[in-house]
Prior knowledge:
Blueprint: E1 9-11, E2 21-24, H1 26-35, E3 43-47, E4 53-61, E5 66-75, E6 84-87, H2 92-104, E7 109-114, H3 125-139, E8 146-147, E9 151-152, H4 153-159, E10 165-169, E11 176-177, H5 178-186, E12 196-200, H6 208-215, E13 220-224, H7 232-246
Parallel strand pairs: 1-3, 6-7, 6-12, 7-8, 7-9, 10-12, 10-13, 11-13
Antiparallel strand pairs: 2-5, 3-4, 4-5
Amino acid sequence: MTKTKTSPRLFVDTDLGPEKPLVLGVAQAHYLGHVMRLGRGDRIRVFNGRDGEWSAVIEKLEKSRCSVTLDQQLQIQNPEPGPWLSFAPVKKTQTDFIVEKATELGAARLCPVFTGYTNSTRINLERMRARAIEASEQCGRLTVPDIAEAMTLDKFMETWPSNRRLLVLDETGAGRPIAGVLEGLRDGPNGLSHDCGFLSGPEGGFEASELDALKKLDFVTGVGLGQRVLRAETAALSALACWQAILGEA
């Protein structure tokens, strides 16, 4: 296999550098050997979120481990600023979908937030992290989103940094059009700004008291996504798509 652009791409949590040997574990060895049908001499790509992306040659591939040697840096590490997405957890499959697509759309941080109408209270952060890694591997990102501990809405409001604009997805129709708000961030005094985040509610929406409490915070702007009633996961990802179109790196 000589075309590195079509080579499998894996995230590793170790330093990367020229001619550095690297040992991959059981899961990645199984993926390369049994799923991708690779062997000695084939190339893969690896990244760690710190040292860019590297091409590596498989030296030895066994059932429980794979030894590779890095030989060429394909991409240098560049900043990948993006919005933070905080969202009320939904069912497991939909949460997986949010994590996967939010990663593809450039979210830098993902945080589950428990609101009054949140139906799902069981959060598996390791599963979220695994889904984010898989999505980063597939979409070509050089970083993996941070996965924050789940928290209540009250704690969320207390800990959100006041210098980062929080756009609350207001399903009541009282929010400002999201495109105009994002354009305002672009045209701010510091030019192109990525210092913002989104808060998406649960399947039943926010409680009226929750929206009232949020709107009292100086750093909060309520935004709307149009006249249609969107599913919770659709709303969260629509907001990120708007950000990507207006403020993203593409």
